[in-house]
């Protein structure tokens, strides 16, 4: 006896804004007439927070403070107890996308390491204890409405042994070099590329590689304490081998969907982003310059 369940949304791209209505049909295909104890559909949205392993000892008392934050929790009965006929049956549904309780806003969908913001529909076909109940889920995406674009915040930088956070003694062993560049803006739209350029003016030791690294910084916690972790999202090599001096090397990085979101700061958690410019010299000496970036969603 086979039962196939599919949750079909009316919107093909599955992207919704807060205040809209998510609607569609639950399609159930049965190979034979099937008895059931009711068909229910649930709309769920939550923020799942996790403390990293390195902080478990310190923050054991914090577990209750980082329990999942419910954003959406609605239920409806699609059909009472009865029988499903042979073939396909469809049950229409719709839910308003409104968060009635604190924080009274729907955060944008985001898949991180220690913070995950997800929205899903779950259909349950209840059956007697002799027959296995059937469950099907369907995720969809919440996005912020585009806001007015801010003027670009251009950042110019220069890297040399004198700008590194090293002691005078350590600087003696560092190869002499001068690298400068420009970031077109540290206030970035998540749907547009992160751009800029970097120029190597001179270096005593040949350069092996220049890379751009996108980092997520996730903070979970509350008044009792917090856990802050930085993890890599992606790493892009923009130069391989010893580059020509005084030639601008373009920086162009597309931000990955779902693994990034507009910068989010709440009382229980934060999701922030940084970019690292990494220069690896031929003797494997590594220099990193860090830039904090603010992500948003603009038209």
Automatic annotation (TrEMBL):
A GO cellular component entry from the record: endosome
Cellular localisation: Endosome
One Pfam family named in its UniProt record: Vps26
Residue stretches in coiled coil: none
Top-level taxonomic group: Eukaryota
Keywords attached to this entry: Endosome
One record GO biological process: intracellular protein transport
Family affiliation: Belongs to the VPS26 family.
Role of this protein: Component of the commander complex that is essential for endosomal recycling of transmembrane cargos; the commander complex is composed of the CCC subcomplex and the retriever subcomplex. Component of the retriever complex, which is a heterotrimeric complex related to retromer cargo-selective complex (CSC) and essential for retromer-independent retrieval and recycling of numerous cargos such as integrin alpha-5/beta-1 (ITGA5:ITGB1). The recruitment of the retriever complex to the endosomal membrane involves CCC and WASH complexes.
PANTHER family xrefs: VACUOLAR PROTEIN SORTING 26 RELATED
Assembly information from the UniProt record: Component of the commander complex that is essential for endosomal recycling of transmembrane cargos; the commander complex is composed of the CCC subcomplex and the retriever subcomplex. Component of the heterotrimeric retriever complex consisting of VPS26C, VPS29 and VPS35L; within the complex interacts with VPS35L. Interacts with SNX17 (via C-terminus); the interaction is direct and associates SNX17 with the retriever complex. Interacts with SNX31; the interaction is direct.
The name this protein goes by in its record: Vacuolar protein sorting-associated protein 26C
Species of origin: Anopheles merus
